[in-house]
Each structure stands twice: as structure tokens, then as C-alpha cells.
Amino acid sequence: MRVLVTGALGFIGAALVPALEAAGYGVCGLGRGPGPLTDWRQADLTRPTSLAGVCADCDAVIHLAGVAHTRASGADHWAVTVEGTRALLAEARAAGVARFVFVSSIKAECAQDEYGDSRRAAEELVRAAGLPSCAIVRPALVYGPGMRGNLDRLLRLADHPWPVPIPRGLARRSLVHRDDLVRVLVALVPRQASTATYTVTDGTPYTAREIYDAMRVGLRRPPARLALPAGVVTALARFGDAVTRWTGRSCPWDTHALAPLLESCVSSDDGVWGALGMAPRHSLAQAVADMADAGRAGRGVP
């Protein structure tokens, strides 16, 4: 069985490709530039004509590629996530692909913005595609070695000698380790279903303070004992919004930037783990400890 992976060079794709190969699948990758795989297909989701024939000789597609940055323009989200998925689905139908796995986002459930809108629209295209078997996967915030974005920034903050008094409470977020998500994606390849939607988390919702505290523990740093009042963050976000309006430039502490502290995004994952007869293997604290140990080893630090 041969599987096409879009976004094969990304954070998730870099772990998914070897996992598929270890499971005995032939893998071909797709990206905008040259790639390391023997079977590599170069195409751009924003140029549908470049996708011609990319699904040839493939039995399944795992569609990871998309715009990850929530501050990207609505036009970018729509061009890549929606129109790119539409064009890829057309190629999958033409090639007779039997299984299509679309990796969406948990924000399709809880984000009322251009990012969430584009994910929901792409999901509808997958449901209506008429392919023999489809799965829509909504990962929670994905963490693991090489992660970027808000979690990476928080990890760097947690590694500072002086703890930051992040407020307790506030918003709650679901997380999932990259390796657990990869296990789910590999397990879904042979699973036949008309169209199924799965949200993937590690089963534990966290506040930003709980994530920060777990990171401090994993990094062997002393815990933060103080916490700012929650109202301080809300007031800071309002001030940042005003600065954004006055200057016309995004403020680094406006509501959007502080969304990880202010906006909840949690979901149950019982469906996918129960359906696959699996359970998450990774906890945040242990994963951070492993990542810290690997980093020390790479620097030659005992």
C-alpha cells in the first residue's frame, strides 16, 4: 500500500513518514520544494495545475499541509487550506485513491476566526468528496521535539532561572504529543469508514499555568510560587488591542497574542482512542524532561 503525505517536511510530517515506513507502507512525499524521499512530488497547493498527477499510484493520502500561523491573512488560509484541499481531492478522485485522511485542527471546533473558518470549510469538502473512505483528524495543540509557536515560546520562558508568575485558572487547552498523533494517523490508514471525524488529545486539559508548571518540572527548574491576578492579563490584552488600533500594527500582547491565556479550546478524545483500541503514551511533564535530556546530550552537558 502506498501513501502520499503532503507537508512531509513539516513538524508532524517529519515524524509521520518514518513511522509509515516502519509500518510497512510505501511513502511518497509532497512539498513545494525538493524533498529527501526517493518518491517525491513537488507541487504547490495554491497552484492547482501543479498538483496534476500527484496522487498517481497512491492508495491513500494523508493531507497535512496547510497554513499553521493563525495570524496569516484570510486569503492565505482560504487559498491553501480550502482551495488547495479542493484541488487535492479532485486529484485523489481521478487517481482512484481509496483512503483520504485530512489533518484539520481542534480549532475547527472552538475558533471563530479565519483559521477556524478555513478548517471547517475544508472539512466539508472532504465530507462531500465522494471518496470510498475518509477520515478527518482534529489534533489538539501538538507538542514534541522541534515544536514551534506558543508552546515553544512558553518552554523557553519556563527554562529561565527566574520563574514567571503566570496567572492560575484562565483558559484551558487540550494538547497531544506528536508521536501519539502519528500513531493515530498510521492506524487510520487501513481503517475503512465512509467519513469519520476524530479529535486527538492526550486526555488532559491544561491551563497555561499548568503547562508552564509542568515544563518547569520537566526542565528541573524550581516551581513558580507566585501568580498574577487573572485580571492583569485581561487588562493587558485590552491595552494591547488599543495599541494595535492606534498603530495599525499587531501588538505582541493584544488579545490575539494572549489568546493561549484567554481562550479555551478543549475536547474529548474518547472516540479515536476507543475506536483504535489505543491510548496516549505521553504526558507533558515526561515529554519535556525527555526533550530537555536530549538537548543536554546534544550539547554534551551531563
Please tell me about this protein's structure:
42% of the residues lie in helices and 16% in strands. The protein is globular. It is of the alpha/beta class and 302 residues long. The model is unreliable at 297-302 (pLDDT under 50). The protein starts with a strand and ends with a helix. The strands form two sheets. A seven-stranded parallel β-sheet has the order 3-2-1-4-5-6-9, with helices on both faces. The protein has a three-stranded mixed β-sheet with strand order 7-8-10. Helix 1 (13-22) packs across helix 6 (178-188). Helix 5 (150-158) links the parallel strand 7 and strand 8.
Give a concise summary:
This protein is 42% helix and 16% strand. It has 302 residues and is α/β, with parallel strands linked by helices.
Output the strand order for the largest sheet.
Answer: 3-2-1-4-5-6-9
Cα-based radius of gyration, to the nearest Å: 20 Å
Q: Which outline best applies?
A: globular
Provide mean pLDDT, rounded.
88
| Alpha-beta classification | alpha/beta
Range of strand content: 15-25%
- How would you describe the oligomerization state of the chains in this entry? single chain
Number of helices: 11
Tell me about the largest β-sheet: 7 strands, parallel
The number of strands is: 10
Element pattern in H and E: EHEEEHEHHEEHEHEEHHHHH
Helix content: 40-55%
Q: Give the uncertain stretches in residue-range form.
A: 297-302
Distance between the termini: 44 Å
